[in-house]
Design brief:
The chain is an alpha+beta fold. The protein has a single domain, classed as OB fold (Dihydrolipoamide Acetyltransferase, E2P). It contains one helix and seven strands. A five-stranded mixed β-barrel has the order 1-2-3-7-6. The longest helix has 21 residues. The N and C termini lie far apart (63 Å). About 10% of the residues have low confidence.
Amino acid sequence: MNSKKHIALYIILFFSIFLFTGCCPNQQFPPNSDDQVDIRGTILNIVLTQVKSDILGTIYVEGPLYEDTSYDKAYISITSSTQIFKIDNLLSSSSQFIPIPFIELQTGMIVEVTFTGPVLESYPVQATAKKIVVFDTFAQ
């Protein structure tokens, strides 16, 4: 009888861990969180693509050139494979990364962008986003 209680306890423990970690829609860290951030700044312009293609639209981002970034201004193409996350509870020690669609991006948002593929070295640069993380809903 005692071993049946232990087995039941282990099963309950397993499902509790699964419930609180494995099936949660929020993520603690976005995929590939160790990627190099290419630009961090404010979205100043958004253009939606009017034709059906892999490119959903473009954003224009400006920000200071930080030690850990490569660019201060960029025109960035957003494709269907671009990962976009919003940080929930930025001030909390347990902030979550929530996936959001491209159409939820708005001018004034503070973002970090990681590029993929070639970067056209015009000024501002032109690139395709691999990942976008929205840090603040709107710039101060």
